[in-house]
Amino acid sequence: MNLDNLDITTLRVFDTLIRTKHVTNTGMELGLSQPSVSFALNKLRTLTNDTLFVRTSQGMEPTPRAMKMSESIRLILNVMETEVFSQNTFDPLHSERSFTLCMSDIGEIVFLPQLIKLLDRAAPQVSIRTVSLPPNELENALMSGDVDLALGYYPDLTKANFFQQLLFSDTFVCMMRKDHKLAGRKLTMDAFEAASHIVVRAEGRSEEIFERFLEQRKLQRRVKLVIPHFMSIPHLLLGTDLIVTVPHSCAVSVVRSGPLTMQTLPMKSPKFELKQHWHARYHRDETSRWLRKIVHEAFSALFLPQ
Prior knowledge:
GO molecular function, one term: DNA-binding transcription factor activity
Keywords: DNA-binding, Transcription, Transcription regulation
Helix content: 40-55%
Largest sheet: 5 strands, mixed
Family: Belongs to the LysR transcriptional regulatory family.
Distance between the termini: 72 Å
Radius of gyration: 31 Å
CATH class of the largest domain: Alpha Beta
Number of helices: 12
Mean pLDDT: 89
Protein name: LysR family transcriptional regulator
Shape: rod-shaped
Pfam families: HTH_1, LysR_substrate
CATH superfamily of the largest domain: Periplasmic binding protein-like II
Order of helices and strands: HHHEEHEHHEHEEEHEHEHEHEEH
Strand order of the largest sheet: 4-3-5-12-6
Number of domains: 3
Number of strands: 12
């Protein structure tokens, strides 16, 4: 059987004729001339070696072969209409979609509460999953769709196949417990260098900015502890004389809920930009566009002037 000349119009003619039983009505419904309808019907007759429709006083009645074909052809057209060429919009109010976001645990502390609050109103059935991936894995995950968005400082995601949108700019501050000997007074460079520091080396990249900043200025710290994430910092600060340099947004969130305080650095802090990143494959995808809009709204609300 040669299907080379079979097209969607021919299938639509068949499907409509099954329902209307009239060539003229079929042509009017599809916007085709009567000869065009007849041509499509003859094409199917040749292909199937069956008359398919027989003219009667009640109209064009389908043969048993046509009746057998009708369900499959309707299914094919339905898939084309609802899945291949669908213009249906993403419905956040009823969607049960789960989105995967790549971010550091700082992002989880600072940003997730605001995002969940916003989703509870805009998309109550939508859920969020977070992951932390190294840069080489993140690129592939964004391309494949395993990760929907990367939120944070990701300087490697600047290739032609990636898009980005600025969410906010941040700086660094020093954090310690409230009764620390360095708390409550201006932090000097000598005191900063002499103190025992926690350094975080996580999958996120913002900490690299401060490390490079110190290296370029040949500034030294006494690094007492290196950890891979930020979540344990409050407990470590409360139980020791250690101090830590973290993004300002993180410090604000942490000191708000515990006996910790933050100090301005003894040097001008470097600034860095936090962005959301996505792959070009999903740039025009309606669901991805909705998610990016929600994320941007959540960050905007989070950093409105108080």
